[in-house]
Amino acid sequence: MERLIVVSAILPVHLQKEGREYTVKVSPGGLVTALKQALHHRKAIWVGWAGITGSISRKLKERILEEGKKEGFLLYPVSLTEEERENFFDGFSNGIIWPLFHTFQAYARFEPPYWKAYRQVNKKFAHLIKKISSPEDLIWVHDYHFFILPEYLDKLGLKNRRAFFLHIPFPNPELFFKIPWRIDMLKGLLKYDLIGFHTYIDRKNFLQCITEIAEDVDPDSTEPVVTIRFENRQVKVGVFPISIDFEYYDSFARDVRPPDKKTKIILGVDRLDYTKGLIHKLKAFRYFLEKYPQYRCKVRLVQAVAPNIKKLPEYDSLKVEFEHLVSEINGKFGTDRWTPVQYIASRIPFEKLVSYYRYSDVCWVNSIKDGMNLVGKEYAASNVDENGVLLLSEFAGAATELNNFSLLINPYDIEGTAVSIYRSLTMPAKERKSKMRQMRNHIKRFDIRWWTNTFLETAFGKKIEDFPPLEDDIPLHEILQFP
To answer: Could you identify which of 49, 215, 397, 471 might form a hypothetical disulfide with 198, taking C-beta atoms 3.0 to 4.6 angstroms apart as the criterion?
Structure first.
């Protein structure tokens, strides 16, 4: 029977050393969250890094297996050395691809050891996939860590059908061609049978980059899926905007208690990252309080900023600047009874997050650049009373879907954003409810199951329901017998 092998940089759970012992933690991030919702209780074989360097003992593999079985997955951890981890994650993935693909080219560091590690790690993943796979298995690869994985699958003689989905934006040729190893990366991608993107803009940028090496390329095609030719093979390239489990958020939100709400609430939920527009957000909120003094003591910005697992100096300096601005705004405008910016320097527990989603008057997504950003969709699904307004950056992938149901903003336009904040707070109830109802209906129709099944049917002619559930009594040796 065909099985689904899922490949991502990290597993949905990871090991963390505390003293002499290891604990198992849930992995953060939108990619893992979305895939867990998409693959829940299907017999998916999930390959990824487990969060620690060096060899992984049998005992730790057993713990990873047991945690995975709770979610219905078989988890296969890949071992990395500390040097590979540093140069693959901090170096090539997060020091080159992440900033460049999000238009922050000044942060990109094109160091040769990074490319060497990128190749080594892709090769390691390919060897593990060969060890655990059968010829009928279908391979679904996720994100920018694995552009060249098919090259090593081919060298190992694996002919399995394979598909790839990119969870971040794809840059235009001017940016992408700055990468010294760009042709190897493009040729690696073209060895997948299907390549998926969030938006038509991302796909257009990719197609513009490959016009010189592939045939039948039409960057301006309006079809959701196009077919091109490369090295006597047909490659599908499609647009598949990712989504959420609407029913889960909707049902959970109906039972949550409201937060302490003495003022109107503008909600921000972000990770500490320069792509999220956090500094621009605070500057716009400060300008709003200056321009519309009647809203002082009547509205507050509740801004949650989850720590970033990427250990890079850019995030340290961002944190310092952000916290300085919070202090400045609260010091200038705050009173004994009112704090303009309620800064939550952590990930909000799920129940409390959904409570904020349901009862906040405005949700503010201010991304400088984002592949999709699912916060707006989570907000709408949880906003069961249909009283909220989504303030959404036009540079988030979600804007291509939700533009008719939200207020679009340019995060670089501080004054324009402040005006949009005012408009969101003064929007007539009828318009507010109409926009939110339409947005909720759209997300309910195009939810995570729609995304999963549309992608899998395009890639393999399968739906997620076609894969069997995981048996409770699966033997340990099925996951433990590999290097």
So the answer is: 397
